[in-house]
Amino acid sequence: MKIALIGYGKMGKMIEQIALQRGHEIVSIIDVDNQGEFDTPAFASADVAMEFTAPQAAYGNFKKAFAKNVKVVSGSTGWLKEHGEEVRRMCTEGGQTLFWASNFSIGVAIFSAVNRYLAKIMNGFPQYDVQIEETHHVHKLDAPSGTAITLAEEVVYALDRKDGWTKGKQHNADGSVTGTSDAGSGKLAIESIRRDEVPGIHTVAYDSEADKITISHDAHSRKGFALGAVLAAEYTLSHSGLLTTSDLFKF
């Protein structure tokens, strides 16, 4: 498979390493300083473009790749609320292909399945309130994380007593704390922590007067995310439309 990389930071470099190990070819690498590469024959020859950039750049990158009829696998977050419907139309009516996930880790996919199942059970036990906490490295700019939002939306979908999620207390990289975790009974609060070089920790906790039930995923490195992204690209090669990890992982 011929792969183009859009974004060549730590994640892009790890994707490159794993893709090469799995026998794929990197035909184009695009970063902030060589945007003209989108218009080259090398980029147009790619079977799939792997897009891991910033929220403000993702949508524009999708359009540039689609203009060359290159399928895209993206882990960028923050664009969905503003551009989600248009991207959906591009992938349904327009014939383009995007595999998008807030997190490509195989472990997170399993964790998400457990989260959905647990939330379905806990809908019958209203004495438990639920909170989500996510911890990431100090370089991460968005909060809550896209993965935490996805987990929260899964919980809200299953729990009749929750009608949405909200930003909870945020522990910033400089040591300051903003916001509050007092979300009110109808909202699910997501608490965010930024410290050190943590790749990502996500915790869902159900707490009552009697006891507490907690599930957690703790990433040791970005390798799991990169492997999952390459697996998604391999899946995307032979599939079309708007794809997600629920298409790739059947559980």
Walk me through the structure.
This protein has helices at residues 10-21, 41-44, 55-67, 80-92, 106-122, 146-158, 223-237, 245-248; strands at 2-6, 25-30, 48-51, 71-74, 98-100, 129-136, 164-171, 177-178, 187-194, 201-207, 212-218, 242-243. By secondary structure, the protein is α/β, with parallel strands linked by helices. The strands form two sheets. Strands 2-1-3-4-5-12 form a six-stranded parallel sheet, sandwiched between helices. Strands 8-7-9-6-10-11 form a six-stranded mixed sheet. Helix 4 (80-92) links the parallel strand 4 (71-74) and strand 5. The chain is globular, with a radius of gyration of 19 Å. The model has no long low-confidence stretch (mean pLDDT 95).
How would you state the average pLDDT, rounded? Answer: 95
Molecular shape: globular
Gap from first CA to last CA: 26 Å
Radius of gyration: 19 Å
Unreliable residue runs: none
- Please give the largest β-sheet: 6 strands, parallel
Given helix and strand content, the structural type is alpha/beta
Alpha plus pi helix count = 8
In terms of topology, how is this protein built?
Elements lengths: L1 E5 L3 H12 L3 E6 L10 H4 L3 E4 L3 H13 L3 E4 L5 H13 L5 E3 L5 H17 L6 E8 L9 H13 L5 E8 L5 E2 L8 E8 L6 E7 L4 E7 L4 H15 L4 E2 L1 H4 L3
Parallel strand pairs: 1-2, 1-3, 3-4, 4-5, 5-12, 6-9, 7-9
Antiparallel strand pairs: 6-10, 7-8, 10-11
Helix pairs in contact: 1-7, 5-6
